[in-house]
Task: inverse folding
């Protein structure tokens, strides 16, 4: 992985801006525009060109592939004991996150990190809190063989199990023209996840010109977000890339919640100066509290010690608890954490500093954050909908059809 993340992210944003400005449409392997392969009615606030850009040409979407991915996403048979599915940690009832501090896998085994929402995950240049997967396809494979998640010994074990199921043998033949493969599993799940797009929030309507879409309190909060509170330093927003994140990795001090972090950080910094080998990173990862080192475990760069990805703020009202360790139960707790400038440590991001917000200003800021909740996402959560018989999840009133049939 490239340790110079800032340059990598800047290059990605430049590419996106030019791609949108020139209206470049990605094309599938057969030469047809992706928009002709698979139609999707995107919610207000999510540009169609942006969505097109993030659908890889080597995994074009079709309705049958999305349906296969949906079935796999909700199928507990992917886990070694039949108790855990992707949806266990990414549940529609919790806006495709869960309501636990950290993820729980087979046998009640607890991971080290909170489950982020899958809504709009397709727009990230990498996946997981530490960015260890470069795509949704790569991400889909890793929980299958994690002892703390689905618990399989190998990908071959998963494939052998699915290949015994008549439904999957038929679907894989239809979608991919052959038997079950782990790459096919990953590609189908990733295709489904690219339909999980959330927008059409009060904020989107406000930006589009509806001045009544936000309450006066939320409008004041928006002003604070861009000004005094300095939230937009990390949670950037523009209409070409409206995810309210820069997808950078930053140390805000959350890692210092772990009592072993300071000692580990010093050891990690010393090891980095000595050009540590990759097996040393694995040793750090396995040590008590080692996961608090964050992005450093992937890059070996001392600047990444205790750094984690800046999450999107869309639907943030619905995805508590917050932070990579789930240590903040409410938005109020999050605001108070940043008011004090996070937890001090020698690796804390230089742009983070204490700010002075009154109680009223904090309430206004929270009202703005609540305005980032998509209308359809809110209805989904409030209704507790998780009907697996639907052809596909319909956040944003998705209109899915395979035009090649």
Result:
């Amino acid at each position: 992985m490239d340790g110079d993340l800032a340059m990598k992210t800047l290059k990605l944003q430049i590419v996106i801006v030019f791609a949108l400005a020139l209206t470049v449409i990605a094309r599938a392997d057969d030469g047809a525009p992706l928009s002709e392969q698979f139609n999707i009615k995107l919610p207000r606030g999510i540009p169609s060109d942006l969505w097109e850009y993030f659908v890889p040409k080597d995994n074009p979407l079709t309705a049958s592939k999305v349906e296969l991915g949906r079935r796999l996403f909700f199928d507990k048979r992917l886990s070694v004991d039949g108790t855990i599915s992707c949806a266990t940690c990414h549940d529609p009832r919790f806006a495709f996150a869960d309501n636990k501090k950290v993820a729980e896998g087979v046998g009640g085994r607890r991971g080290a990190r909170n489950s982020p929402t899958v809504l709009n995950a397709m727009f990230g240049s990498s996946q997981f809190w530490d960015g260890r997967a470069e795509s949704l396809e790569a991400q889909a494979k890793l929980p299958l063989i994690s002892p703390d998640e689905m618990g399989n010994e190998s990908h071959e074990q998963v494939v052998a199990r699915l290949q015994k199921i008549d439904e999957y043998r038929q679907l894989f033949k239809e979608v991919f023209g052959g038997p079950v493969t782990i790459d096919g599993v990953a590609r189908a799940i990733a295709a489904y996840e690219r339909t999980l797009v959330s927008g059409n929030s009060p904020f989107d309507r406000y930006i589009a010109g509806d001045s009544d879409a936000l309450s006066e309190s939320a409008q004041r909060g928006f002003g604070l977000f861009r000004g005094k509170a300095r939230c937009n330093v990390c949670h950037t927003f523009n209409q070409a890339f409206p995810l309210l994140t820069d997808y950078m990795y930053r140390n805000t001090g959350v890692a210092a919640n772990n009592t072993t972090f300071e000692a580990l950080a010093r050891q990690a910094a010393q090891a980095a100066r000595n050009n540590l080998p990759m097996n040393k990173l694995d040793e750090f990862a396995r040590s008590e509290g080692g996961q608090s080192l964050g992005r450093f475990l992937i890059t070996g760069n001392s600047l990444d010690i205790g750094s984690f990805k800046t999450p999107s703020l869309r639907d943030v009202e619905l995805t508590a608890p917050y932070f990579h360790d789930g240590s903040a139960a409410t938005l109020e707790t999050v605001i108070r954490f940043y008011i004090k400038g996070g937890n001090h440590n020698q690796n804390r991001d230089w742009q983070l500093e204490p700010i002075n917000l009154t109680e009223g200003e904090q309430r206004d800021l929270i009202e703005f954050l609540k305005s980032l909740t998509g209308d359809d996402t809110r209805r989904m959560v409030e209704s507790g909908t998780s009907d697996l018989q639907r052809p596909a999840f319909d956040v944003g009133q998705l209109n899915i059809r395979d035009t090649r049939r």
Observations:
- Confidence is low (pLDDT under 50) at residues 14-36, 387-405.
- Strands lie at 38-39, 249-250, 308-309, 401-402.
- The two ends are 40 Å apart (CA to CA).
